[in-house]
UniProtKB/TrEMBL annotation:
InterPro entries recorded: Amidase, Amidase_CS, Amidase_dom, AS_sf
Domain annotation Amidase: ranges: 67-487
Alphabetical list of Pfam families matching this protein: Amidase
The name this protein goes by in its record: Amidase
GO molecular function: catalytic activity
Length: 504
């Protein structure tokens, strides 16, 4: 059907918003000249959209009630059975609720998206089903994925499996909680500031943020394309490596991917760490809110790696702190433009756009006051940078990010891996529902100091559990060269085989 044409008054209003003034006569002349363009719009409107075929049967499912959802970690339950054979046959998986599963609601932890139902499966979903998994549903995630705590989701706060009322981490909160609680074998998370690794550290799971672009992000709601990552969360290293083998590789639809280097990650699991060079990243132990008990647990775990034959020594990488600072203009201005003004899509990239999601996300403007405080904060910073400085700090930060990557790369010429605490603290209590904005934001962002830098530099990083403090898990993080996920798995598997982390 024909699209609605603007009136003369509307065209004059549009011109005014573009800082132009049109007379009535000029507007009429331009309006006539615009008609061939609108005729092309009509043609496009009549054509069917391109959407990948849905190859596996599923029901729309249901939203579980509290007796079935004690951790609030499920957003939606369904069952989608994959291939009968494959690397992951017999395994169950939960999908972070920013990942499209055709026919099943997706809310991304945010009320403006409630009621949205994707029409196609994300690439990672199809690949997992082809490998034999059974998808059991959508895991709760934080409000537009803008929190490292687990109190911001519009469905409900997600509870830590080790202590009710405490943070499960975010933003892949439900994903890690469900794996840790044994409700699923595997989960898929997303990571723009630590959202795979933070919940893995808080919940005692294994969470891999792969090299940027290794895993296609197609069919996953974007925050900011240069820091968008997706990866596996599991209860053991082997399952994690298997998942990455299944999910990794170009799909021809994601512009985040150039020529990703895929590896046989399970081949690294039996190699041990003898002779492996590991640099203890000093800056990773120097965050202002570092809990010394967490630091001690991580140091103790590193000592175990040394006993196993790794060559360990301290190293300084000042660019670690630089990368953390770069996250603010890149993350805040980028998400304000792509996820909010760009309705979850933005412009200027070739790939698979979800037009239905774009239409639904546009409704955030009618519910803007209900956006989470952590998202509002990022938007205020981003909008100010865009309006007052025309995006120059975003642009400059992207340029300088090369120096941050080079700092890691230089250290990784000497060391096979860098190691540090995943997060500086253990899981904290959920804030009260009537808490101040300051407390709400603090509980959402206080833990990202070590995890955000690798989203800027694109290096692979994995959190593994390495002990308990006050009965709550502690995470150790490995960082490797670009596409050196295999080396990370090599060290993680050696530690897992030698140590019962819960006894440390």
């Amino acid at each position: 059907m024909a699209i609605v044409r603007p009136t003369l008054d509307q065209l004059q209003d549009i011109a005014g918003r573009l800082n132009m003034q049109l007379t009535h006569e000029q507007a009429a002349e331009y309006l006539a000249l615009m008609q061939p363009s609108f005729d092309a719009y009509d043609l496009i409107d009549e054509l069917p959209d391109f959407t990948p075929p849905v190859r596996y049967d599923r029901s729309s499912g249901y939203r579980p009630s509290n007796p079935q959802n004690l951790l609030n970690a499920w957003y939606y339950r369904t069952e989608v059975n994959g291939a009968r054979e494959g690397k992951l046959a017999g395994k169950t998986v939960a999908l972070k609720d920013n990942i499209s599963l055709a026919g099943v609601p997706m809310m991304n932890g945010a009320a403006p998206l409630e009621g949205f139902v994707p029409q196609f499966d994300a690439t990672v979903v199809t690949r997992l089903l082809d490998a034999g998994v059974t998808i059991l549903g959508k895991a709760t995630c934080e409000h537009y994925c803008l929190s490292g705590g687990s109190h911001t989701s519009d469905p409900a706060p997600v509870h830590n499996p080790y202590r009710h009322g405490f943070a499960a981490g975010g933003s892949s909160s439900g994903s890690a909680a469900l794996v840790a609680a044994g409700e699923v074998d595997l989960a898929v998370g997303g990571d723009q500031g630590g959202s795979i690794r933070i919940p893995s550290a808080f919940c005692g799971t294994y969470g891999m943020k792969p090299t940027h672009g290794l895993v296609p992000y197609t069919g996953i709601m974007a925050i900011e394309a240069t820091i968008d990552h997706a990866g596996p969360i599991t209860r053991n290293v082997r399952d994690n490596a298997l998942m990455l083998e299944v999910m990794a590789g170009a799909d021809g639809l994601d512009p985040r991917q150039a020529a990703p280097q895929v590896d046989a990650y399970c081949d690294y699991l039996e190699r041990g760490v003898s002779g492996l060079r590991i640099g203890i990243l000093l800056e990773g132990f120097q965050l202002a809110n570092q809990d010394q008990r967490v630091a001690d647990k991580v140091r103790s775990a590193i000592a175990r790696l040394e006993v196993l034959g790794a060559r360990v020594e301290e190293v300084s990488v000042p660019e670690h702190n630089l990368a953390g600072s770069l996250w603010h203009p890149i993350g805040c201005e980028g998400l304000t433009m792509q996820m909010m003004h760009g309705n979850g899509a933005g412009f200027n990239w070739k790939g698979l756009y979800d037009v239905g999601l774009l239409d639904k996300q546009a409704g955030w403007r009618e519910q803007a006051d209900a956006l989470s405080a952590s998202l509002k904060l990022c938007m205020f910073v981003g909008q100010y940078g865009l309006e007052r400085y025309n995006g120059r700090f975003y642009a400059k930060a992207q340029n300088i990010a090369r120096f941050a990557r080079a700092g890691y790369d230089k250290a990784l010429e000497t060391y096979d891996l860098l190691v540090m605490p995943t997060v500086p603290i253990i899981a904290q209590p959920h804030p009260e529902s009537d808490c101040s904005i300051t407390e709400y934001v603090a509980r959402a962002l206080e833990m990202i100091g070590n995890t955000a830098p690798q989203d800027i530099t694109g290096h692979p990083a994995m959190s593994i559990p390495c002990g308990l403090v006050d009965g709550l898990p502690v995470g150790l993080m490995f960082v490797g060269k670009h596409y050196a996920e295999g080396t990370i798995y090599q060290a993680a598997a050696a530690f897992e085989a030698a140590v019962d982390w819960k006894t440390l």
